[in-house]
């Protein structure tokens, strides 16, 4: 399970009450959610589930994401219900499938298999990736255990440069960049391998990696792949990606889940030219895009403030509510 910290029950209760308060804005709800994500125990888990009642599909999808990042098997039944609910927004269902892959227990397998051919392509492809992730790591762990047993040692834990549970492992670090680019941009390559190339490019970093990732927005037909590319560009926080992400956000014909990730990536990169753009699209007619820009403005404000951690257990969420509201109000 992901590393979680202990907090007093009063801290969790305070966060829950703020989350339930109808006056709490979306940006502050995000901070509360990310605070809860890092807190151990059933109380924090239950408080996160309250977020699934939120009218914002964007926020519900983020709750599902955070449940997966915690890798807590207690979330499996809830995630199974979300995945099965065809009345739920596809982006939320996608995130539930990905979260099941991140948790990766035996009980996650059946619901993922059930939706391998879901009518929604993004959901079907997510479930395919999630199953392959579970199978990959099971095989890797079996090999590591066998090698450790032969050597008389414990299996070494895997390491990641980024603090996220990724939908697939990265391709080997020694893979040439040209090969990673070719795999990512190949419409014939299996999506699992394209994802692996994408995460390897993220880990590689630098201008050539950013360019290869950016090229996928025109080369790829999969909205699922493109939304993940936007996400990793935000993780990289490289200003070289700003122009590409601006074009993606501004493309009204692009899938909303791709534009959403482009907006949040711009907020994370926090280059000066991102501010006016995010203010402009905070009024976008697509609610997911508009809400993403509101959250991204708060992220940008935080990054430019030089803060250490976006959510630190709840106190920051309350203390910065006025600042976040001021940024959004100026949009």
TrEMBL record:
Its EC number is 1.14.99.29. Pathway: Protein modification; eIF5A hypusination. The keyword tRNA processing does not apply. It comes from the Eukaryota. Its cofactor is Fe(2+). Fe cation 2 binds at residues 227-228, 260-261. Binds 2 Fe(2+) ions per subunit. GO terms for molecular function: deoxyhypusine monooxygenase activity; metal ion binding. Fe cation 1 binds at residues 61-62, 94-95. The keyword Translocase does not apply. PANTHER family: DEOXYHYPUSINE HYDROXYLASE, PBS LYASE HEAT-LIKE PROTEIN. Catalyzes the hydroxylation of the N(6)-(4-aminobutyl)-L-lysine intermediate to form hypusine, an essential post-translational modification only found in mature eIF-5A factor. This is Deoxyhypusine hydroxylase. It comes from Chlorella variabilis (Green alga).
